[in-house]
TrEMBL record:
The keyword DNA repair is assigned to this record: no
UniProt source species: Corynebacterium hindlerae
Keywords: Carbohydrate metabolism, Hydrolase
EC number, as in UniProt: 3.5.99.6
GO cellular component, one term: cytoplasm
Protein name: Glucosamine-6-phosphate deaminase
Gene Ontology molecular function, alphabetical: glucosamine-6-phosphate deaminase activity; identical protein binding
Class in the EC hierarchy, top level: hydrolase
Coiled-coil ranges (or none): none
Organism classification: Bacteria, Bacillati, Actinomycetota, Actinomycetes, Mycobacteriales
Pfam family, one: Glucosamine_iso
Length: 256
């Protein structure tokens, strides 16, 4: 696992994603506040530098159960509003779990099959929750889990209430999420974390044991994982001398 500490994580992350986009690879996309600056930088590169996503496919990590796709806070709508409507990827190439399915268990199985049919995800973008979750794999999730239904932890509901007029009662309590086993099958895992509020989870991810209490710790098992942090998110690390610091927010000449 490579850990990079930089003042502008979105630049390092966008550099990595650009490499896969230029090769027409399959991208795993995340929603939430953490990747927004990275998406904005990629949109800028598309509009100003000609970066194309036309040959790519994309798969989302998760979706709320019972929320219509047209709802502004569904992840189906969110990824389009925040990213894919502003680039040249085909809308039909942007896939997400079906949160309205009558049989969500079957829908989860179909989603895993769709990822396999596309040849797998080449680069999966991730954030991390304050409790160490990735996707919506809350503490206690099986390290071998597949796309499935999960019940959100109360802390996650509190964290997400800001997207629902700060009203926890409006936040769906169940989701369809890629499992940790599904995520681990991606070719390259790219996790971004910013802010002091993530420092404890980042320390557990990077320097703690691989354990279900911190689902993100499974990145330690992956052969190609990159964790990009700002200094605040890295503040809890005890061994930062072993990690890489980006120069001018870039890692020039590196293969990631």
């Amino acid at each position: 696992m490579e850990i990079v500490i930089t003042e502008r994580p979105e630049i390092v992350a966008a550099d990595i994603i650009e490499k896969y986009a230029r090769e027409g690879k399959t991208l795993g996309l995340a929603t939430g506040s953490t990747p927004l600056k990275t998406y904005q930088e990629l949109i800028r590169r598309h509009k100003e530098e000609g970066l194309s996503f036309a040959q790519c496919q994309a798969f989302l990590l998760d979706e709320y159960l019972g929320l219509p796709r047209e709802h502004e806070q569904s992840y189906y709508r969110t990824i389009r509003r925040e990213f894919t409507d502003s680039i040249d990827i085909e809308d039909s190439a942007v896939h997400s779990p079906d949160g309205t399915a009558a049989d969500p268990v079957a829908a989860g199985n179909r989603y895993d099959e769709a990822i396999k049919a596309a040849g797998g995800i080449d680069m999966q973008l991730l954030g991390i929750g304050t409790d160490g979750h990735i996707g919506f794999n809350e503490p206690g999730s099986s390290l071998a889990s597949r796309t499935r239904v999960k019940t959100l932890h109360p802390q996650t509901i509190r964290d997400n209430a800001r997207f629902f007029n700060n009203d926890e009662s409006q936040v769906p309590h169940h989701v369809l999420t890629q499992g940790l086993g599904t995520i681990l099958e991606a070719g390259h895992l790219l996790l971004i974390a910013t802010g002091a509020g993530k420092s404890e989870a980042v320390a557990a991810l990077a320097e703690g044991p691989v354990a279900a209490v911190c689902p993100a710790s499974v990145l330690q098992l992956h052969p190609h994982a990159t964790v990009v942090l700002d200094p605040d998110a890295a503040a809890g690390l005890k061994h930062s001398e072993y990690y890489r610091f980006a120069v001018d927010n870039k890692l020039a000449g590196q293969g990631y």
